[in-house]
Structure formats: structure tokens, C-alpha cells
Amino acid sequence: MAALYLEAIPLLLAVVHTLCDIIVDQAPFASGLIGSTANLPCHLIDAKKQVIRAHPYWLLQKPNQSEVTLYPIKPDEVTRVQLSNEKEWKDMSIFLSNLQLSDTSKYICRISVLKGSESLFKPGNGTMLYVHGPIQMDFNYSHVMCKTQVQMAETVSFVWNFPFWDTLHWEELSSKQQNPDGSFWISSHVTLQGHCTAKRNVTLSCSLKNNMGYVIDKQSVEVRCPAPIEMDFNNTHVSCLNQLQEAQNISFVWDFGPWKWMKGPELSNQRQNPDGSYWIKSIVRLHHERCTTKANVTLSCSLRHSLGFTLQNQSIEVPCTDNNTGGSQPKGHHPVLFFSLLLGSTLLILLFVLLLFYRRRQSRNPRQRLKVHVPYNAVR
Question: Do domains 133-224 and 230-318 have the same CATH topology?
């Protein structure tokens, strides 16, 4: 048995050597827009130049389905597949025209080669083609959206790039919605919270990537750096001010935290500038009756879209102390003290009225006050 193994080793080495001499090289990934044409590269590498003749075969491999031959085809069949270079027999690349979302699949290039008198089939590792719709990108204030249509939503995602944003905090919301034909709409929304240092327009971009890290497509949009929220405290009032290019459906939302003694906003307004931009302002007044803390507390306001997206937020520390009119409790207005004084005053008045009534009654019966006690023995 050992001798048989020793005789088989040279044969195995010869087979491996033969396989390494001839290689079918395929690109692992390709992508294309709906309706466009995709190039799927495939090249025959013959290191020792032993191949006399070669014929390409392109196969479509879908999950849980049998392979389908795309090339060559029968004479009466209509195909969207065409060899990219028919004169160069080592270049077996193809063009796939009029791409559809359903063309998203793995394509295998298999070449039949004649090496001397030996006929061999050499397959490539396959090219994953991903067909997608155009990326739709929209910027609305500090809310940015990317959206596109794909065939397989579980293998792709959007990746964002925010250059020049130094203090950027962003929240991402991704979603997918299936269509009747089995395809998906995928989208990603980000809310930018922070300011960029550049005093000019900056470029934001989102890339559609698959789970292997390949970039399928990329889109960019130029946006204006948002102005920071200006927040101010003036004794008993807190104000928030911000400049926007468009102010429709935008408003300030206040967060008072544990400050239950604050109510607002009392005043909100918008003012248009000559350049078309807007100033938006909101003011709240501090009501001190229920200010229980003796330290500074934090008050914040957020610039929010009517759809619920937070564009920016800002915070400020406000004092709540007895030495400050903005946080002290006004004397004589505490409800418990007020009712205690009222009850005490009422009881005193009632007692005074009863005393007057008693004295007047005593003054109307003078005989009772002059009655003298005479001993019984003295009368006899």
C-alpha cells in the first residue's frame, strides 16, 4: 500500500503543475446602473504558452438554482451578451447590456483549452455583478438622505463620509422597503449635529458598499456649513437664535429637564434677511415659584424639523440661587405661607368678635353684677 502511495505522488504533482500553468483570471466584483452595460473581465493566463486553442463559456449561477449558459448561444436565441474582444482569443471578457436588477448574480467564466493533444476545462472563481439604481441624495438643512434601488438588500449598505466637520455628532437611520417585483428600496438618513470649521460650502458623500467591502457606487452633495445656535440668559429670560437658509417647518424645541418651574416658549418669531436667509428666535421666561435647587442647572434648546429630525442643539447653565432674581423665590407668594396667614387672621377676627359679643351681653344685666350675699342668720 505504501508503494502505491509513492507511485501516486508524482502523478498528483504533475496534475498540480499542469493546473498552475494555465489560469483563468476573473475580477471578483463588478457593478452597473439599471439600463447600462457592464464589462465582466476574464483572461486566460498561459505561463508556458502551451495552449493551442481556447473557447469561452459563460455561466450564470444564482443561489439555489442550476447554472444557466449565457455564452455561446444557439443561433436562434437573442442574447445581451457579447465578447468584448473576439480577435484576442486569450481575452474572454464579455459585455452584458441593458442591465436589470434581476441580473444581480455570480457569473463564471469557464474556458475549454487544448493543450497539445489534451483537452481541459478551466473555470474561473466567478465575478459578482451588482446592478443598482442611481443614488438619490438630498440635503435639507442638517438632514442628509441617500436612497437607491437594489435587488438584494441584505448584502449592501450606505457608508458616509463627512470631511471638514470637526465637532460632528451624527445619528443614522437606515431602512429598506420591498417592492412587488422582489427588489428593495434602501435608504440612509443622517442628522448632523455640530459645526464645521470651514466658512464655506463643504462636500458630503455616501457610498453604496457590499458586505465584501467593494464600492458599488458613490454620490456627493455640496452643503452650506450651518451656523451654530446662539443661546443667551438675561436675568429671567433665556433665548435661542439661529440663522437658516430656509425656515419652513423649522422650530425650536426646549428641554427643561428637572426644571418644572419653567414654562415656554413665550415668544417665537422668524425674520427674513435681504440675502434670503432667515433668523429664527425663541424666548422662554423663568418662573421661580418651584425652583428647589441651589446650584446651576442646564437648559437646552434644539432646532428641529417638523418631520422629527434634530438639526442642532445647544445648552446653557442658568443659576437658581436666592441671591439672584433669576432664581430666587419671591417673598410673600408661597402658597402654604399665604394660606397659613389667612387662616390665622380669620381665627383672630373670630375671637375678637366673640369677645365683643360677650362684653355687650354683660353690660345689659347690671343686677347680676350688684347682687350681695346676705347670711341667713342676719335676716332672722
Answer: yes
DSSP one-letter code for 86: S
Strand order from edge to edge, sheet including 156-161: 156-161, 201-210, 215-224
Q: 14 φ, ψ to 5°?
A: -70, -40
- Of 2.60.40.10, 3.30.365.10, 3.90.226.10, 3.30.420.380, which CATH number belongs to 2-130? 2.60.40.10
Local confidence pLDDT in tens for the 380 residues of the chain: 434 443 444 444 444 444 457 889 999 999 999 999 999 999 988 877 788 888 899 999 888 888 899 998 877 777 899 998 877 778 899 999 999 999 999 999 999 888 877 888 889 999 999 999 999 998 766 678 899 999 999 999 999 887 665 545 555 678 899 999 999 999 998 876 555 555 566 778 899 999 889 999 999 887 766 677 889 888 778 889 988 777 777 888 888 776 655 665 668 888 888 888 888 899 887 765 545 556 677 888 888 777 666 777 788 887 765 444 444 444 444 566 677 788 888 888 888 888 888 777 777 655 555 555 555 555 44
71 φ, ψ to 5°? -150, 135
Q: Nearest Cα to 252, choosing from 228, 238, 273, 268?
A: 268
What is the model's pTM?
A: 0.59
To the question of domain 230-318 being in CATH 3.40.50.1110, the answer is: no
User: Which CATH number does 133-224 carry?
Assistant: 2.60.40.10
